[in-house]
Amino acid sequence: MDLKEWFANRQKRREDAIEVRQPLTTEEYCALWTQCFQCRELLYTRDLRTNLHVCPKCQYHFRIGAVQRIEQLADADTFCEIDENLTSADPLGFVDSEPYPRRQQEASRKSGLKEAIVTGTLKIDGHEAAVGIMDFGHFGGSMGSVVGEKVTRVIELAERLRLPLIIVSSSGGARMQEGIYSLMQLAKTSSALKSFADAGLLFISVLAEPTYGGVTASFAMLGDIIIAEPGARVGFAGRRVIEQTIRQKLPADFQTAEYLLKHGQVDMVVERTRLRDILTQLIAFHGAAGSGGELSSSVSEEALSTR
Amino acid sequence: MSPTEKKAVPLEFEQPLALLAQQIEALEKQLAENQSPDLDLDLARLHEQYDVLKRSLYSNLRAIDHLALARHPQRPYTRDYFQRWDAQWIEVHGDRKGADDAAMVCGLINFGEVRAVVLGTQKGRTLRDKQHCNFGMPQPEGYRKALRLFHHAQKFSLPIVTLIDTPGAYPGMTAEEHNQAEAIAVNLLELAGLTVPVIAVVTGEGGSGGALAIGVANRILMLEHSVYSVISPEGCASILWRSADKVSEACQAMKMTAREILSLGVADEVIEEPLGGAHHDYDAAARNVQAVLVRHIKELSRLSPAQLKAHRQGKFRKIGSFVEG
Fold first, then answer.
1. Domain total for chain B?
2. What is the ipTM, given to two decimal places?
């Protein structure tokens, strides 16, 4: 292409660009800016994203989805998803104001995910690990058969490959629409963690806003190390239920990460911007005693193929 | 003393039956005063009707009726069973960490043929008793007390029998501060690792995680009118239907009755209750449960310690329903 042609094309490109540049719709404009829920500061969305969705002004930690979390934690292009094709059945034929399958479709449409957890393997600063990342944006992060099965499988995979395991929880609890099956997922996941623990492997549980009910009462509270994100609310029963039961107002910071730390329930409260570093440090520290460290990639491939 | 049939408080769905019983009673009174063959005939017919009605009533219960029976104020509670199984049963107390939760009753029992570590949630009968037992809702201390007994059973190679009758783990401020969730989670994990037989019997209400914390067993048995659910039907109704009046719908939708839990493959056996519910005859109810329990303990005792653990883990590993691909 000669220079003349290039200039001509540039002119044309400019014209095209000007032509399509419509004034921003309100929606688009809103997407550019995000208001902090806590300090009300108007934040440029792109800046917020580079700061891992933590308000630069007041350190408020926005809820993030599984995809964003993986982007934040994994070394580039190292995440390898497993069991992505597991979807919920409707074992009870559950109908409240809407049938359960329709609620599932609605949840998937909103979240872009098939289920409330994404599992797989990744590398964090070069350290290989098995991960489960829950997404509150899908069906309130609730645990039904699929979440229970995926958590169990990723635990089993980590045990087979002798990898450290990280689960980031964010869930309203067990999924009511699958009734007793949802409840039994608590036993299934905890049982899998028993053999994992007996194998001498490291499990780090990260509690993100919010983690409640059946998820807290099973794998989320069984970490060798438990990390909570600042301000995350974590508990067994919800605040409203407790207030109704004891007929008292609860303190404002009740069930927050900081409150949990004070009451000896978590090891540390870690800002999202430091999470990756802390995880790396923990994995590196336990590496020698836990995952063996000298695991070769051929071993892991072999183990993967026998699944 | 177990209440006799007439003293049992009739539930809403039992009203027609109670009405008939009243008529029979009135007629019997008349008959005692003046003999008449006509009345005799009426009485016989009424008795017959009563039996037919009773049978049809209890074989066609709705989920919410089972719930009412499971929560019946006169339903036999954990201590009622222990006492009838072994009058000399030895109660043990405390979590060794600072508390003794009365909502969790633990002890050592001799069934005659077999010995077992037993524990279960306890509801109270009188108001004071109820408050003392926190209405059958254990605190974390209760679950840690149970955990101590799991380890005791493991150490002495004794089977564990747990009785479940709880609305759920207590949702309170100190319960949260003492880490209710962790107490439950640790029990799930530890139960999964035991190498002794574990049998759980849902005798009344199986309320969510608070029930499961003593329910990770090789066998899950349910009394005929007991229920087992992921959340209380009241909680489910208020969240999904946004209305407290939809409890009946929630009960039905969650499939929480003993027969339904059996057909979903979670419960292993349903134990029959005396007609009209266990509260009509404590002794018979206790006998029924004991017979089934002893049979299961004997069956499980044939397995090796490693097999027992694998069996329990395998049982829960399979539970769930999903589509792959």
1. 2
2. 0.93
